[in-house]
Amino acid sequence: EADIYQTPRYLVIGTGKKITLECSQTMGHDKMYWYQQDPGMELHLIHYSYGVNSTEKGDLSSESTVSRIRTEHFPLTLESARPSHTSQYLCASTKTGPTGELFFGEGSRLTVL
Amino acid sequence: DAKTTQPNSMESNEEEPVHLPCNHSTISGTDYIHWYRQLPSQGPEYVIHGLTSNVNNRMASLAIAEDRKSSTLILHRATLRDAAVYYCILVRGGSNYKLTFGKGTLLTVNP
Questions:
Q1: Spatial CA neighbour of B27 closest among B69, B63, B71
Q2: Is A98–B101 a contact, with Cβ atoms under 8 angstroms apart?
Q3: What is the pLDDT of residues B77-101, one digit of tens each?
Q4: What does the DSSP assignment read for A89-107?
């Protein structure tokens, strides 16, 4: 059973609002990831982190930002939500090393009106 | 980063074996081959991984070509619950790496 949690699961919000999607894991994993996925489409890596105070941008350009102040916590923030940000956001984590299994949270489905 | 190529879709009948191919012709010596699957309305889940030798676990088998430029995920008896998108990705050894997914293969299982 994966110990990685995302909140909120669903969020409907108006344009211009600031939102934070939370992601926490209790497995002590150093590496954490955020993916964006539209229905029926592929997963796009938008942010990742190798450990505390390290964050990198992924392959898909995103207006969101992330922080990694604690090992277990990797929140994603949108300062001013727009309808184009409507999507599902999936958080994942894995231990250091190439044999580690990637564990995913259940996702946060964001709708911006 | 080394890329993988998979068929967009495949179809199988229930209780029959399924062989899902993946090409990774630019694989490097330290790349591990991982497979994940994503069931409808869920996040991806790990299936299996290997480096050079064939691997078996309770979910599937992974057959890796001798030159490592391709691999095949084998579901021995497909069930309706195996209908999902299957992703083959390469995970590089070393201290830092990012994990990117391609489009995967959509597996349809017919009753």
A1: B69
A2: no
A3: 999 999 999 999 999 876 567 788 9
A4: EEEEEE-SSTTPPPEE---
